[in-house]
Amino acid sequence: MNQTMKQWSQREDLQVLSLVGISKNAGKTTFLNGLGKAWSAESVGVFSIGVDGEAQDVWSGRSKPEVRVYKGWIVATSGICLQNEADAWEIIEALPIDSVAGRVYLARANCDTSVKLTGVPTRQWASLCIERLKQCGCAKVIVDGAYNRKVMASPVWSDGFVLVVGASFSPSLSLLVKEVKGWMAKLLLPSPAADDIELYQSFYRREVCALQIGERWISFSSHEWIQSQGSHISAEDLKQATKLYFHGALTKRVLEQLRSSGFTGELTIPDWTYLFDFLVRGSRIQVLFPSNLLAVGINSTSPDGWQVNPEEFQAQIQQVVGDIPVWDVYREEWISDVS
Fold first, then answer.
1. The pTM is what?
2. I need a surface site. Which of 99, 192, 206, 333 has the fewest CB within 10 A?
3. Hey, what domains does the chain have and what are their CATH numbers?
4. What single string gives the DSSP state of each residue in 195-220?
5. What is the spatial distance between Cα 208 and Cα 210, in angstroms, rounded to a whole number?
6. Virtual CA dihedral for 184, 187, 190, 194, nearest 10 degrees?
7. pLDDT in tens, 129-181
C-alpha cells in the first residue's frame, strides 16, 4: 500500500484526491494520515468539507485521531484552529469563506504538526480552496470528505477518490458487504456512446436537462421538473423518448415518475454523485463522467465496541470490488502507530 501511495504522488493526472467514508467513524482520518506519511515530502494542500482532527467527536464524545500534516504543507481551516500552535503556522491569506468556526485561512506548516480542519460547506468554496491551494504551489490537494456528502468525490471535482468502509456502519459483515455492493452499482455505471458525449457535455455546461424524441431534443431545467413533478413533460413525450439527459439529483421519486410515465429509454446523468437512490435495477442509467475509485480502505473495528473478522472482511470486499486494491487501514504495519 505504501508503495502504491508513493506512486500516486508521481502521477500528473492525480492532482486532487478525495476521501469518502460510508459512515461516521469509518476511518477516513486514519487513511488520511497514512496517505500523508507516504506524501510527507510532497507539496500538499489539505482541507475538509466536514470537521476532522477534533480531539473528541462532537456527537459521541469519543476520542478521535488527530490530522497530521508535514512541514511545507498548506491547510485551509478556520483561524481559531491555528491559534493553539501559532508558531507552527505561517498565515498565507484569509479566504472569503466562513466555516462553522469562523473565517477560513490558508496557512503553511513551519514544522510537522497536527491540525483541526473545519469544514468548507459549499461546492463553490471547496472549488475556491482547490484553486488557491494549487496557486500556492501545492502539487497535490487532499479533500477529506464528510460521510454524508459525496459531491467532492465527483470526477468533475477530484481526479480520484478512496472509499473507506468501516465496521462502524454495522456489526454485520453481510450488511457491510451489501452496502459496498450498492456503492459499486453506482460507481460502475457505464458511459454513453461516444457519439453522444459531446452533445451531453454541452447540456452539462448549460446545466439543463434534455429529452430526445426522434431527431428532436427538448431542453428544460431540473427545477422545472421538480416543481411540476415531471408533469410539464407529457407522458406521451416520455413514452416516445429514446434518451434523457437529467442534470439534477436522480432520486427515487424522479425514477418512479419516469417509470410511471412509461419512459424506457437511456437515462444519462453527469456522474454517480447525482444518483441519490441505490435502486438502479431495471433502469438504463449512464454517467457522462465515469467514476475514478482508486482504492478501498477498510476498518474492521468500530468505536462502538464491536469488530468484524478482518481477514474475512478484506476478502469479501475484495471480491465485490474486483481489481481495485483493498487496504486494511488500521492493520497495515506502516501506520500501526495511529491510535
1. 0.88
2. 333
3. 2-188+291-335 (3.40.50), 194-287 (no CATH)
4. HHHHHHHHHHHHT-EEEEETTEEEEE
5. 7
6. -160
7. 999 999 999 999 999 876 656 777 889 889 999 999 999 999 999 999 999 99
